[in-house]
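Reply to dn_fold:

You asked what the input looked like. This is it:
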Amino acid sequence: MKRKARAIVVGGSIAGICCAHSLITAGWDVVVIEKSGSPQTGISTGAGLGLDQQARSFIELWLNQSELLHNATLPLTIDLNQATDSEKKISKVSTRDDNFNFRAAHWADLHGLLYKALPSDVVLWGHHFLSFCISDDKASVRVKEKVLHTDEITEIVGDLLVAADGCLSTIRKYFLPDFKLR
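and this is what came back:
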């Protein structure tokens, strides 16, 4: 029997969790490394997110229960963009879409739904990414990480490394050293 390809996702926020779901759906073995000690529960921090129909269809597939997402979101039926002239104290509507068809999700609610729909052994909470090394034949990657509650340094070997570790990504800096975010 052929071994399943293994992906290592660095970052357990919404992007990392969505990558994990996509890869699992495609038949990969996935591990997510996240430095936070545990998932957020009962904390209403973070931004609201607008989900279009395509995003909702993927999330509903991963959740296996479309009503969970529907019940955790609110309709966003109109998109309105205004241009404001602060000196003249006037504003004008630049665009308006009355058929917006998005739904609004709170960050913590969406993250909780997505996380709970993953197998329990996918996310390694309290694991801090340290470095990675690509094999000479470029067929695998070795990730070095630190288990924060024990200070133990461990290695994980995989076939794919996904950098979902945010705007200060160490992995992105390695591949795109001169890339500057605005």
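The radius of gyration is 20 Å.
Hope that clears it up.
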